[in-house]
């Protein structure tokens, strides 16, 4: 009996121990559930650690990136230039109607890169004679032109819409030359004087000056077309005509050829829109910013022409195809330094002189006013803003 009791006590003791262990585990589990979940933090930390360890790999890749940098730098300017040309430069065609120093500002502006500076890609073309240029402008084949004022005025009187937006020369800058036998202008009576084309500046200069000295054009003195100023000089040298109207550089060439300067017309100070910037009203109204930028570039080109004599003479020589320094000096001195205005307004008196001449054969000119042919808004903007004064350090 005692043995049985002892055995039961032993089993109870073992079970008690087992229960104690189970209870201890249960309590520990409950305590663990009650605490904040600390386990995920170490799990996240190892994930962040590789980022720090990856830095050496990034450093190793840096030389490759640096090696590619020069190519990127080289490609960037090219891409920028292409993008700029594609998005900002307005392509236009501009004509000049005579190989004359009066149009030097156009050539200088082009070669100095000033059109590009103001967002324009300008093609410059020589088209002999204002009456030839104007129809091309009306047809939209060219956007603007530097030309004598007579052609735009005649075009408007005939129903066209050409407008003069700036003036490059507001007096006649030419002389009448004759063969060595011609001593005075009266000696042209019964002879012929050559002009580039009827209705051009050379034609007006010849007729107006002859009348000032009491000679009647077409009666006392014949007026003949040659096609261009160089052609007039060639005709005189060949003896086909006795006189011609020239300004630099052709006036210098005429002197060198032994021809005589009979009348220096600039000394007479005759108001005359000899060289202008013109366009059609339609083009101007639909492309105001282009015209504005063209005038702005030309105004800066005038400043360059006046202030940088050597560069100006170089470009003049390039366009007239003559490197004779005497020719270039005289061309620059007359047109650029003397006749070319800093602020290129069109002088209404210069237009009125033309209207008076045209009125002799066209009644419409009698009722017309200079303001009908001039629009100086773009020059005035530049003048009022102080832009032009800054170009001259004023």
Fold topology:
Elements: H1 2-34, H2 40-87, E1 90-96, H3 104-111, H4 114-117, E2 120-126, H5 130-138, E3 144-147, H6 150-157, E4 162-171, E5 175-178, E6 192-195, H7 201-212, E7 222-225, H8 229-237, E8 243-246, H9 250-256, E9 260-264, E10 271-280, H10 281-286, H11 288-307, H12 309-320, H13 325-339, H14 348-358, H15 364-367, H16 377-385, H17 387-391
Parallel strand pairs: 1-2, 1-3, 6-7, 6-8
Antiparallel strand pairs: 3-10, 4-10, 5-8, 5-9
Name of the CATH homologous superfamily of the largest domain: Periplasmic binding protein-like II
Report the average pLDDT across residues: 82
Number of discrete domains:
2
Q: Please tell me how large the radius of gyration is.
A: 43 Å
Whole-Å distance between the termini? 135 Å
The global form is: globular
Which CATH class of the largest domain is shown?
Alpha Beta
CATH architecture of the largest domain: 3-Layer(aba) Sandwich
Class from secondary-structure proportions: alpha/beta
Return residue spans where pLDDT drops below 50 for at least 5 consecutive residues: 1-77, 79-85
Approximate strand percentage: 5-15%
> What composes the largest sheet?
5 strands, mixed
């Amino acid at each position: 009996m005692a043995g049985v009791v002892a055995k039961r006590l032993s089993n109870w003791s073992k079970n008690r121990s087992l229960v104690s262990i189970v209870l201890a585990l249960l309590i520990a589990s409950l305590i663990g559930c009650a605490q904040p979940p600390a386990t995920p933090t170490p799990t996240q930390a190892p994930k962040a650690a590789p980022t720090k360890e990856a830095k050496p790999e990034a450093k190793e890749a840096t030389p490759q990136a640096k090696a590619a940098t020069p190519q990127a730098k080289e490609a960037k300017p090219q891409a920028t230039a292409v993008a700029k040309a594609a998005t900002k430069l307005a392509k236009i065609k501009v004509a000049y109607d005579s190989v004359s120093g009066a149009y030097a500002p156009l050539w200088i502006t082009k070669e100095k890169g000033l059109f590009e500076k103001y967002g324009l890609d300008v093609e410059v073309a020589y088209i002999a004679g204002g009456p030839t240029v104007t129809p091309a402008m009306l047809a939209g084949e060219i956007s603007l032109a530097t030309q004598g004022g007579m052609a735009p005025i005649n075009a408007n009187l005939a129903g066209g819409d050409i407008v003069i937006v700036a003036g490059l020369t507001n007096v006649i800058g030419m002389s009448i030359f004759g063969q060595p036998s011609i001593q005075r202008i009266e000696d042209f009576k019964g002879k012929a004087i050559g002009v580039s084309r009827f209705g051009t500046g050379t034609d007006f200069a010849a007729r107006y000056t002859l009348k000032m000295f009491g000679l009647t054009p077409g009666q006392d003195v014949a007026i003949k077309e040659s096609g261009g100023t160089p052609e007039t000089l060639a005709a005189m040298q060949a003896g086909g005509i006795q006189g011609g109207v020239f300004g630099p550089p052709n006036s210098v060439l005429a002197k060198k050829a032994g021809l005589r300067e009979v009348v220096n017309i600039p000394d007479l100070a005759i108001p005359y829109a000899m060289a202008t910037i013109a366009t059609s009203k339609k083009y101007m109204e639909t492309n105001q910013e282009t015209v504005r930028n063209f005038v702005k570039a030309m105004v800066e080109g005038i400043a360059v022409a006046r202030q940088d004599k050597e560069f100006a003479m170089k470009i003049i020589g390039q366009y007239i195809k003559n490197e004779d320094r005497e020719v270039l000096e005289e061309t620059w001195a007359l047109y650029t330094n003397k006749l070319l205005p800093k602020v290129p307004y069109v002088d209404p008196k210069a237009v009125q002189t033309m209207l008076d001449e045209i009125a002799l054969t066209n009644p419409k000119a009698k009722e017309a006013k200079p303001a009908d042919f001039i629009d100086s808004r773009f020059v005035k903007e530049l003048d009022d803003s102080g832009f032009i004064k800054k170009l001259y350090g004023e």
